[in-house]
């Protein structure tokens, strides 16, 4: 096999010709081919997005470039085709990269973490300059930041209170909705709109740049979690970060989940490494971005308690008979650690709220998600099913099914927190299960919500069959929304084609040609390894 970046000496890479040779060898490798496929896909998504993405209602830049035709008629159809080809190319590149990482399909596993991290940069670079893809949330973020900038309280009024170019591009369903995000995210939005003003393009790019620290934290923390959870670092990075569902939605779609998930993973990693207070501070910052991160806090208390028991047991085993080495009653230990954790959390959150000059009104704004109705949430599925077998309309039963599922969610969260407390791995598994329950049982769900549990699941040792299921699920979720942010779940053929693509992607993780489209199969040969120059 051709040499990879990890087999080259420092002397080689220090010389320009050596760097060129290393890059050329990488591009000839299976992972290099996958990287180029994904890059081509990202470029097509970016260019297609100018016509068929979540575009502005009026785009002076396209008009000045005489490209407004991309948004209408045949131009719109061409743009849509480019986007879907790009998405499929990124999925194909991701699956091929998965085979190279796992060593399936006749390949040997030679991919390194540094190569995967480099591919992340290659794939997201074109997306940094795309219009918002598969969602219009970026425009809401900017409008909410402008509210705080202009002296309004985003927890009291919606973007409609502040007319202007930013409001013009907000999805109508959110114009009157107050902000459901934490104070630190509002501060970021205010800072961006102070710098970019009413310039939507500059504001969107700035939002993406603000999300990049979350991506960097994921690239560090997700592989690091495998040290405690038993997984393989390269597989974890491939599954949780290079996943098109994550990159296209969280970077291309500009969602604050990118920051929240990155902070969450970093907080868990810090607590697992016994930096408990630092971990609580980081998760508090995550909650101040988006409230969902707070689900992890009770489980981090369990991990802290486990570490405290181990520390005191080690001191007793070493012959320390002082009172400070004795194991206190579990209830007292829990009260002390939980109190300290909540105190640190509250201090960070109060400080963030004071800086933003807002209260905690965002908690009541969380109910705004009820405006979203789609098949990805169990309450909606139940409501639709009832309308099929009864004369009731969905509006008559949706509130009931949502209430039932909310009660079930509270029960599941309480049970999960109490059940998963005996070890570090159990506690992290509990956080993951809690996130899955929230996604499924909440009043509304969107495809990128699955990035929450996926980031933690990737840290565990997963069988090939489980990875195939996750690949299929992520592919399906990536394909069931339209590039402009509309829902494709109510179109039979759209859903059917998404299912077909998901099955092919899942099978392709194990087999190079699952549909047997090749008339003849060439024998798999094992390429020779080219030694590095001394």
UniProtKB/TrEMBL annotation:
Keywords: Glycosyltransferase, Membrane, Transferase, Transmembrane, Transmembrane helix. Pfam families: MptA_B_family. It is a multi-pass membrane protein. It is found in: Membrane. It comes from the Bacteria. InterPro entries: MptA-like (IPR017822), MptA/B-like (IPR049829). The keyword Transmembrane applies. The chain crosses the membrane at residues 34-55, 75-95, 116-134, 173-193, 205-226, 279-305, 337-363, 375-394, 400-420, 427-450, 456-481, 488-509. Belongs to the MptA/B family. This is Alpha-(1->6)-mannopyranosyltransferase A. The lineage of its organism: Bacteria, Bacillati, Actinomycetota, Actinomycetes, Mycobacteriales.
């Amino acid at each position: 096999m051709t040499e990879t970046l990890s087999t080259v000496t420092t002397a080689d890479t220090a010389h320009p010709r050596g760097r060129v040779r290393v890059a050329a060898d990488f591009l000839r490798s299976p992972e290099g081919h996958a990287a180029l496929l994904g890059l081509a896909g990202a470029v097509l998504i970016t260019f297609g997005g100018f016509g068929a993405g979540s575009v502005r209602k009026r785009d002076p830049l396209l008009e000045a470039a005489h490209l407004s035709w991309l948004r209408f008629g045949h131009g719109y159809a061409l743009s849509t085709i480019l986007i879907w080809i790009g998405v499929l190319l990124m999925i194909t590149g991701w699956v091929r990269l998965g085979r190279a990482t796992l060593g399936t399909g006749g390949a040997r596993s030679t991919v390194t973490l540094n190569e995967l991290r480099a591919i992340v940069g290659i794939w997201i670079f074109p997306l940094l300059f795309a219009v918002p893809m598969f969602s219009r949330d970026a425009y809401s973020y900017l409008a909410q930041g402008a509210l705080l900038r202009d002296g309004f309280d985003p927890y009291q009024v919606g973007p409609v209170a502040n007319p202007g170019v930013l409001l013009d591009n907000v999805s109508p369903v959110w114009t009157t909705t107050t902000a459901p995000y934490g104070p630190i995210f509002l501060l970021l939005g205010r800072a961006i709109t102070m710098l970019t003003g009413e310039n939507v393009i500059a504001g969107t790019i700035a939002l993406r740049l603000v999300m990049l620290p979350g991506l960097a934290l994921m690239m560090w923390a997700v592989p690091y979690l495998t040290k405690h959870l038993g997984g393989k670092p390269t597989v974890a990075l491939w599954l949780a970060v290079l996943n098109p569902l994550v990159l296209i939605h969280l970077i291309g779609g500009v969602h604050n989940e990118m920051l929240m998930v990155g902070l969450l993973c970093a907080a868990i990693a810090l607590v697992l490494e016994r930096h408990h207070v630092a971990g609580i501070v980081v998760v508090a910052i995550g909650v101040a971005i988006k409230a969902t991160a707070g689900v992890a806090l009770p489980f981090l208390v369990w991990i802290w308690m486990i570490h405290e028991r181990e520390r005191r047991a080690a001191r007793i085993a070493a012959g320390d008979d002082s009172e400070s080495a004795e194991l206190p009653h579990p209830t007292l230990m829990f009260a002390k650690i939980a109190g300290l954790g909540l105190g640190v959390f509250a201090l960070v959150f109060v400080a963030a709220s004071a800086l933003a000059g807002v209260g905690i009104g965002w908690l009541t704004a969380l109910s705004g998600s009820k405006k979203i109705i789609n098949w990805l949430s169990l309450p909606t599925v139940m409501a639709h099913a009832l309308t099929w077998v009864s004369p009731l309309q969905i509006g008559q039963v949706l509130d009931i099914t949502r209430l039932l599922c909310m009660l079930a969610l509270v029960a599941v969260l309480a049970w999960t927190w109490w059940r998963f407390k005996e070890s570090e791995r159990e506690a992290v598994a509990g956080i993951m299960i809690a996130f899955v329950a929230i996604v499924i049982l909440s009043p509304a769900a969107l495809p990128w919500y699955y990035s929450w549990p996926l980031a933690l699941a990737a840290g565990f040792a997963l069988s090939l069959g489980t990875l195939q299921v996750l690949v299929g699920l992520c592919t399906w979720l990536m394909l069931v929304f339209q590039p402009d942010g509309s829902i494709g779940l109510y179109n039979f053929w759209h859903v059917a084609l998404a299912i077909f693509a998901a099955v092919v992607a899942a099978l392709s993780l194990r087999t190079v040609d699952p549909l047997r489209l090749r008339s003849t199969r060439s024998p798999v040969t094992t390429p020779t390894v080219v030694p590095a120059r001394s």
